[in-house]
Design goal:
The chain is mostly helical. The protein has a domain of 79 residues. The chain is elongated and about 140 Å long. The protein starts with 88 loop residues before the first helix and ends in a 6-residue tail after the last helix. The model has no long low-confidence stretch (mean pLDDT 79).
């Protein structure tokens, strides 16, 4: 039996040396640039947390929950700005009448849409109100409604002689 120990005694286990304890880096000397934050950056504010847990307590029974967060400024007030301009009423009437001329009141609604659309465009030049696009929409739907009404009238007149011919050729009960 071979033994690797020099004296022939029982082998001794060698334990590794313990690692050295962590030492923080040395602090910079007082007055060095590390003592001051960079320009334009303020040190972070200490965050405050609510007091002990108030879970399960109902309001009015015991101490109220402490949810104050110190260190946060109030939200900025949003004000100023420009006042909103009003939309011309005749422009809205023109669009509604133009749509009604296409759907509910075929010819009359379209004429009202065209007339009020032109009136609103002339008012918009002087009043400073908004609604030019709405007035143009009313004009366009009004003119389209008038065009469709005229086209329907022409188609009806084209088929009117054929309708009379069919009616005149019907057998009579005599």
């Amino acid at each position: 039996m071979s033994d690797n120990t020099p004296s022939g005694d029982a082998p001794q286990s060698q334990q590794p040396a313990p690692p050295p304890a962590y030492e923080p880096p040395p602090a910079p000397p007082a007055g060095s640039p590390a003592d001051y934050p960079p320009a334009g950056i303020s040190p972070p504010a200490q965050q405050q947390y609510p007091a002990a847990s108030t879970y399960g307590q109902q309001p009015g029974y015991g101490a109220p929950p402490a949810y104050s967060q110190a260190g946060y400024p109030a939200a900025p007030a949003y004000g100023g700005g420009y006042p909103q301009r009003r939309t011309n009423s005749l422009a809205i009437v023109s669009l509604i009448a133009g749509i009604a001329g296409l759907t509910l009141v075929p010819f009359i609604g379209s004429i009202v849409g065209v007339i009020t659309g032109h009136m609103s465009l002339s008012q918009l030049k002087t009043s400073g109100e908004e609604g030019r696009g709405i007035a143009l929409g009313g004009l366009i739907t009004g003119y389209v409604g008038i065009g469709l009404a005229v086209l329907g009238l022409l188609v009806a007149l084209a088929f009117l002689p054929a309708l009379f011919a069919v009616i005149s050729n019907l057998p009579t009960n005599t």
